[in-house]
Specification:
By secondary structure, this protein is an alpha+beta fold. It has two helices and four strands, in the order E-H-E-E-H-E. Helix content is 28%, strand content 23%. Strands 1-3-2-4 form a four-stranded mixed sheet. The two termini are 25 Å apart.
Length: 81
Amino acid sequence: MTLATLAHYRQSESAGIAGAGQRLFNCPFIEIDAGVEGVFQLRVGLDLAIIDEPAIKKSIIMIRNYKRLVIGKIEFCGGNT
């Protein structure tokens, strides 16, 4: 799992770093790609100033407890979604 702030993903996108693509990083998200041999790649973007130890621990718990994980991107924007 790669865990980073939304600001980091926005900076990566604007710098044209490989893998960032033309995505918008406006909301916290979980993105899951099918990996190789049953290993999945997860990217988690959080709307935080820094990633600290409590954020890491909470993210691990969130991933373990989230029951509707599917391949693709799940955004957690406010509003009626």
